[in-house]
Amino acid sequence: MSTVESQLLQQISVTEEKPQHSKRNVGLVLVGLTGGAAIGLSIIAAPFVAPALRKVCLPYVPATTQQVNNVLRALKGRTGTLVDLGSGDGRIVVAAAKAAKLSGVGVELNPWLVWYSRWLAWRKGVSSSTSFMTHDLWKLNLQQYKNVVIFGVEEMMPDLESKLLQELTADGCVVACRFPLPTWQPIAVFGEGIDTVWLYRRPNDYAVDKRKDHESFVDNR
Fold this sequence. Notes:
Rossmann fold; 8 strands; 8-stranded mixed beta sheet; 46% helix; globular
């Protein structure tokens, strides 16, 4: 075999090997990118997925404008600190601080929503009278709050009712949205359908309240 033929064969061999190496390199890059993206998505999604893995899932569903208005009507004339259990994007706490002049605390498991809520409060000019924390609502002592707001799910309401009975102060009130408490009797109901809001006082105070200024009524405006 001549020298020229040998050189041609070597060039052909090198040319055939390059695509194989190139394919392997591209494959490794794609695997690396896919793995990195999966890890990144897991980190970002973890705060959203974690609540769903708990016994009772409290999903993030933003309150409608009508729901917010109904909550504000239920809180009319109230004083003291408000706590929103599962505060989501913070709109209830912020609205109560602006419209009802109530200082408020938002309790939310999702840290991304907590950070957004703090930004929203700052943007609306009520950051000094509001606060938001990443916390499990079941581990929060409610005795320090006179106004409790909850956008719950049906499965959690019996356990929440027991917690409220143990921890809610005598002059405290509960504003339940979307689902009522299973056995307590509301002293007022605002709205209808998915926008319904129920206002409660502790059962042992209910009879006294009816004789005073909290006559039970239904308002479907």
